[in-house]
Amino acid sequence: MQKVSYMGNGETTEFTFNFPYFENTNVIVTKNGEPATGYQVIGTPGGVDADIPYSGGKVVFETAPTALDSITIARALPLERTIDYQPTAKIDPTTLNQDMNYMMEVLKDLQDELETLRTQYAEIADKDSTATLLARIAAISEDIATVRAQITALGDISTLRQTVTDLSTNVGTIDSRTSNLLDYVIESQMPSAENNYTWYRKYKSGWVEQGGSLSTYPSSEESLITFPVEFADNNYYANRTLNYSASSNDWVVYSGGCVYDKTTTSMKFRHKGAASWYVCGMGAQ
């Protein structure tokens, strides 16, 4: 994707860009990651009979963005046809060139997105699953190069249209092909006084890890531990570590420590003194 970023200063209202585009709806402006308002796009014409109508332009805000505002100007070209060539109608070279250049620019943006994916996954390229994904991305890149060659040669319009449609379908389903290859944290909590010093990590696959600390000394030698996240059943793995303290003359190690009365939302822990606990298993849906 073609884009340029700026930081506001409270004075500047005009921000330029130099990527080509076809109509003003192709220019997407965001402020601090959200769609911007109160601006207009003024394009720089590419000239008479230009293959691409605008060679760049500027975005003019009604009110200057502040020094805390991040401005991004990007190009978004829908993958669609706007011209329908009729079998008996004469094809205008200017119209045909603009149509072919539109497809070429769309493919350039798709190739940029694939290169971004390749960079993001490079750090874990030693894993077999990631190597499979990267090989698939490389294959899609080769497909794009093939289609670009077809555009250069101008080939058959109907065949080119079907090829581009197939390529769009392949690129759009990358997430479904990686769903069983990678697992990662989608939600977490850090321990603090507000959450009674408990923590957890939830993974995309549904796996949950959680734990906490017991700093009190229960008179009954029993603590009820309530989990931050509910488990699917009580077959989760549970472990605990007993801490120790020092008197003025020697070390005293507290003995005991067992887990029982396990449920999907809590367990009981018999112990003396401070302790830490850890559990993991499949979370409730």
Tally of strands: 17
Helical content class: 25-40%
Classify the beta-strand content into a percent band.
25-35%
Uncertain spans, ≥5 residues at pLDDT below 50?
246-256
Topology order in helix (H) and strand (E) letters = EEEEEEEHHHHEEEEEEEEEE
Nearest-integer average pLDDT: 81
Q: How many domains?
A: 3
Overall shape: it is: elongated
What structural category do the secondary elements indicate?
alpha+beta
| Alpha plus pi helix count | 4
Largest sheet: 5 strands, antiparallel
Order of strands across the widest beta sheet? 8-9-10-17-12
Distance between the termini: 37 Å
Radius of gyration: 30 Å
How would you describe what is shown here?
By secondary structure, the chain is an alpha+beta fold. It has three domains: 1-76; 78-181; 185-282, Immunoglobulin-like. Helices cover 27% and strands 31% of the residues. The chain contains four helices and 17 strands. It has helices at 93-121, 128-153, 157-172, 174-178; strands spanning 3-7, 14-17, 27-31, 34-35, 39-45, 54-61, 70-75, 185-189, 198-203, 207-214, 222-226, 237-242, 244-246, 251-253, 258-260, 266-270, 275-282. A five-stranded antiparallel beta sheet has the order 8-9-10-17-12, with no helix packed on it. It has a four-stranded antiparallel beta sheet with strand order 1-7-3-4, with no helix packed on it. Helix 1 (93-121) runs antiparallel to helix 2 and helix 2 (128-153) runs antiparallel to helix 3 (157-172). The radius of gyration is 30 Å and the shape is elongated.
Quick structural overview:
This protein is of the alpha+beta class and 285 residues long.
